[in-house]
Amino acid sequence: MKLESAFNMSLFKKKKKRIKYRFADDIMAKDAIISLVLGVLSAIAIVVSVIMSIIKKGQAGEDAGIILLAALIMSITGLVFGLLALKSVEGGTNSKYTAVTISLVDMGLVLLFYVFSQI
Prior knowledge:
It is a single chain. The chain is mostly helical. The chain is built from four helices and no strands. The longest helix has 26 residues, at about 30-55. It is elongated and about 60 Å long. The protein starts with a helix and ends with a helix. The mean pLDDT is about 80.
């Protein structure tokens, strides 16, 4: 009887998930720092191009286009470095996800401006 109840109880026990902890000596990965810097520079370039367009009353033309192209290149490069940082073990994960998010938002804004400029 004891053997049967022990067998039945083992069927209903939940398996415990093993939590994997990652420890690193560095606070941030070097790739994540590069990605964050490129993402912030890209965001600054987007803001500058918008301000330039407002000052020139929508007639910024090539100047704003070149700045937005530079912002797109920086955001793509930042995204690549952010994805490389996600693969590495060093550094915390919050900075890596933040770097990738900033680069994706910058890229989305540049593409959004491009779509609206074609209308």
